[in-house]
Design a protein that fits this description.
Blueprint (H helix, E strand, L loop, with lengths): L1 E4 L3 E5 L19 E6 L25 E3 L2 E2 L4 E2 L7 E4 L3 E4 L10 E5 L3 E4 L3 E10 L2 E12 L2 E10 L4 E7 L11 E4 L20 E3 L5 E3 L9 E4 L6 E9 L3 E11 L2 E5 L4 E11 L4 E10 L3
Antiparallel strand pairs: 1-2, 2-3, 4-14, 5-6, 7-8, 8-9, 10-11, 11-12, 12-13, 13-23, 14-22, 15-17, 15-19, 16-17, 18-21, 19-20, 20-23, 21-22
Length: about 290
């Protein structure tokens, strides 16, 4: 595990080699920040199983995902009809071509080059399968109370669809949490819900906050795709029990945004989706500001 620090924060980043057992086929192996602590050593992020050591699928902290399938359109992206292909940021992978459902087995991990100093870590990898190929650069850096996550994806093969999302896990306050967005964002119309989204779970307050409601079985969790105008950048605020709030901003057009929570954590999931043409590069970033001062 690697550690970067500022005067206000410490971030732990998993080592793709030494921490391989904690990676799995869901989250990008490079730049996987699994812990953020303040100057008093207090944990500022959470996870679905926190504080227990999580499964590779559930994870913890601030992981990011390059999808090999489009969950919402139910189609494969970088996996072929035989079930073989690549998961960007993970490596060569195999899925069941009939029953696949966002779960893949990494059969040959990609190799990451790592360079770091006290406040910054950079990880680079190159991947290829058949006519698909890409280079990925992940940078995490700390500046005061802000953690920056920066990504560059270079397509060196045939055209493919990029679908990526961040999955930050925030701690709850007295078993609940709430979030709000600069772009008007509300709960979906009941008729638009998919089966896995059924159940109330959340409510919209008059001041724009989307809140977890107390009288819900949060042990089983609740997932919702939120309603908002697509293509707008991310600017969100999440309430936090230790630092008041976390401001989350992204410089990319958000395709969709979802929210998921259970009895231990709340996560907002902004999606990026774009066509990557041959020899095309694309860069985007997120920043997490933990409180003020």
């Amino acid at each position: 595990m690697f550690t970067i620090r500022s005067r206000s924060l410490e971030a732990c980043v998993l080592d793709p080699v030494a921490d391989r057992a904690r990676m799995g086929g869901r989250y990008c192996w490079g730049g996987y920040c699994n812990r953020v602590r303040d100057s008093e050593g207090r944990e500022l992020m959470s996870g679905p199983e926190f504080p227990e050591l999580p499964s590779a699928f559930n994870g913890e902290g601030i992981p990011e995902v390059f999808r090999f399938d489009d969950k919402h359109e139910h189609r494969l992206l970088t996996i072929d009809e035989t079930g073989n292909g690549m998961i960007i940021g993970c490596g060569l992978a195999r899925v069941d071509p009939v029953k696949w459902s966002s779960l893949g087995d990494v059969v040959e991990p990609c190799t990451w080059e790592v360079a770091s100093d006290d406040a910054r870590i950079e990880m680079r990898t190159a991947q290829a399968y058949a006519d698909w190929a890409c280079n990925v650069t992940r940078v995490l850096r700390l500046d005061g109370r802000t953690l920056y996550s920066e990504t560059v994806l270079e397509n060196t093969g045939k055209e493919f669809t990029l679908q990526w999302y961040a999955h930050p896990f925030f701690p709850l306050t007295d078993g609940l949490c709430r979030c709000r967005f600069k772009v008007p964002t509300t709960l979906p119309d009941p008729d638009a819900l998919r089966p896995e989204e059924k159940g109330t779970g959340y409510r919209c307050a008059d001041d724009g906050w989307i809140e977890m409601i107390p009288d819900f079985d949060w042990e089983k969790g609740c997932f919702k795709r939120l309603k908002r105008e697509p293509g707008q950048p991310l600017d969100a605020e999440v309430r936090h029990p230790l630092c008041g709030s976390v401001r989350v901003r992204g410089d990319f057009p958000v395709d969709i945004i979802t929210v998921w929570a259970n009895a231990r954590t709340l996560s907002i999931e902004p999606y990026l989706k774009r066509t990557m043409g041959e020899n095309e590069s694309y860069a985007w970033s997120l920043q997490y500001k933990f409180g003020e001062g």
